[in-house]
Structures are given as C-alpha cells and as structure tokens.
Design a protein that fits this description.
InterPro entries: ACP_syn_III_C, ACP_syn_III_N, FabH, Thiolase-like. One of its GO terms (biological process) is fatty acid biosynthetic process. Keywords: Acyltransferase, Cytoplasm, Fatty acid biosynthesis, Fatty acid metabolism, Lipid biosynthesis, Lipid metabolism, Membrane, Multifunctional enzyme, Transferase, Transmembrane, Transmembrane helix. This is Beta-ketoacyl-[acyl-carrier-protein] synthase III. By secondary structure, the chain is an alpha/beta fold. The protein has 11 helices and 13 strands. It has a 5-stranded mixed β-sheet with strand order 1-7-6-4-5, sandwiched between helices. Strands 8-13-12-11 form a 4-stranded mixed β-sheet, sandwiched between helices. β4, α4 and β5 form a beta-alpha-beta unit. α3 packs across α4 and α8 runs parallel beside α9. The longest helix is centred in the C-terminal third of the chain and has 21 residues. The radius of gyration is 19 Å and the shape is globular. It starts with a strand and ends with a strand. The structure holds acetyl coenzyme *A. Acetyl coenzyme *A binds next to α2, α6 and α8.
Length: 326
Amino acid sequence: KYNAGIVGLGTYVPERILTNIELESSLETSDEWILSRTGIKERRIAAPEQAASDLALAAASAALENARVSASEVDLIICATLTPDMFFPATGCIVQDRLGAKKAAAFDLEAGCSGFIYGLSVAQAFIASGIYKTVLVIGTDVMSRIVNWRDRGTCVLFGDGAGAVVLKPVEQDQGILSVHLGADGSGAGTLLVPAGGSRMPLSQEVLDLNLQFIQMSGGDVFKFAVIAMCNATKHVLAGVGLETEDLGMLVPHQANTRIIESAAKRLKLPMDKVVVTVDRYGNNSTASVPLALKEAVDDGRIKNGQNVVLVGFGAGLTWGAVLIRW
Ligand code: ACO
C-alpha cells in the first residue's frame, strides 16, 4: 500500500494587480477598512480573455515541469473550481486536451473553496488503491467574474489564480498520511451564487436583481470558518496520533487574515508556523492553498520530513484537511 506524495508544484496568477487604493475610486470603501478587516492589500484580476482553463493550464504545465513528469504519464486530472469555463464540458477536460495528457481521465470537482483539499483526498484514494500512479490536482478560479463589483461587502475580498500539484505513490510514512473532509448543506444559504443553474436560470429579471453574483453572510461564514479549520486540523493530526506541537507548518485557505489568526490562536499555534498570502492575492478560492503551499516550499519554510497540514473551508458549506509528511 502506498500514500500519494506531492512531487511537483506549479502556480499562476494573472499579471493585473488591483490595489485597495484603486478600489477607493470606484467604491465607497478605503484601504484602511479593507486592510484592517481582511488583511488584503491587493489581488490579481484575470485579463478579459482569460478563463479558468487558461489559468489552470499555466499552473498545471508548471507543476508537470517541476515534477519532471510528461503530460502523457498523467492518469487522472482533478480540476477543482467554482468558476468553470462553462457548465459543460468540464474545465478539467479542456485542460487535459491542451496539456496533451491523452491517457488521462478528467473531471471537475466542486466543493467551494475546499475543492483543492477535496481533490487531494480523491487523488490519495486513487493512488493508495493502486488504480492510478500519476494524478494532477488543480485549483483554478476566476472569482472576479462572479462578484458584483458594486457590492463593497464582497468584491474587495476575492481574486483570481490557479495552483496545481502532481501526485505519485510514495512510501507509507511519507506523503498524505491522513485526510478529513466534511460538509454541512444546511449552511448552503450563507455563501452562494443563486442564479444561473437549473434552480434559477438566467433571465433579465434575475440579472436586474444581480442574482448571478456571490451573496454572502460574512459574519456567519467567519464564525464557521474558524471552527471548521481548527477541528479539521485537529482531526487529521489525531488520525495518526499527532498533536498541534508536532505540526511543522499550517497552510490554510486564504480568505481573511483575521480568520487565519483566530484559527491559529484557537489551535495555540504561533503565526510563524502559518502561511499567509492573502495580503497579495485576496481570496482566490481553490487556488489559495496551492499558492500558499508553493510559496512556503520555495522560501524554505516547508522542509523535508516536516508535518504539514493543508486546511480549507468554503461554500457548501464544506471543509477539509490533509496531513502531509513533506
Ligand atoms: N468598505 C467599507 N465598508 C464596508 C465594506 C467595504 N469594503 N464592506 C462592508 N462595509 C461596511 C458594512 O456595510 C457595515 O456597515 P454598517 O455597520 O453601517 O452596516 C460595516 O462595514 C461592518 O460590516 P461587517 O460585515 O459587520 O464587517 P465585518 O467586520 O464582519 O467584516 C467581512 C466583513 C470582511 C466580510 C468578514 O465578515 C469576513 O471576512 N467574513 C468571511 C468571508 C469569507 O471568508 N468568505 C469566503 C468564503 S470561501 C468561499 O467558498 C468563496
């Protein structure tokens, strides 16, 4: 029996930087408000011609190169996104074709901002069972397309980006040691895009009411997020008999610095063991965890042999964590 180990990482963020100061000219907001409530200074915004698959392709190509794995070796592509190019076909299939990953199966996974963590756990299951040897997990989101740029309560929070990892079988004391996933659909109404699906197809009336954009009950999501991230982190550590003291680095979903700090405080984890990138990218949904992970690997904060927990929460409501022996 094997575990899935991350053997390559790649990320992509669009070039365009949108600062808080710039937002001040189009919204009744301020750099001070956004920074003090969220920790966000700026975010990246996709060019008009860029869709989720374009960001994903760039991140996936970089991850394959980093892993020294050719596209033809990939058995499965799991593309986590809540902003797919279109309803169908799956964005994962578009990426499969553009990568030239001819033998790979491909599908999209929608678990809100927890999608990348859900994707890693699916990859772990396929690799541990021996069904597949090389799995590409991508998180890609163009949140700028689904926020109402006139709603200051949501639009300042999000950004665009993509991250990808290549997973292969590794020995049992390495790679993904434990996973924990959860969902509570009773909270579906706290974070959603109401229209555009089969429940409420797009119509002029719907567009006039701006129901094609994100709606969020910020305070409820905040409280849920802190508890969900703490519990999920404790769960994956306890799964292999570890405690918070054994944790080398925590890589949380990047929604808001205050959420991350509150979760770290509850876990009694010092902030130097927590990766934060939300200041520069905002919340780019499924891309946030791989972006933060790559940054901490590249700058040497994550080292071989360390216990690393990736943890997320999102619409659904969903949450999840994976413990990786790096
Ligand atoms: N600029 C200035 N003022 C603002 C802004 C803004 N951008 N946005 C809201 N305000 C105002 C509000 O209108 C309100 O004014 P009022 O008191 O006159 O009514 C005031 O600021 C306070 O608003 P609150 O919502 O109470 O502010 P809070 O401190 O709760 O912060 C925030 C709001 C940042 C949204 C916070 O609740 C939060 O981060 N929640 C979690 C959000 C999140 O993580 N979402 C992503 C989930 S992941 C996924 O799956 C997509």
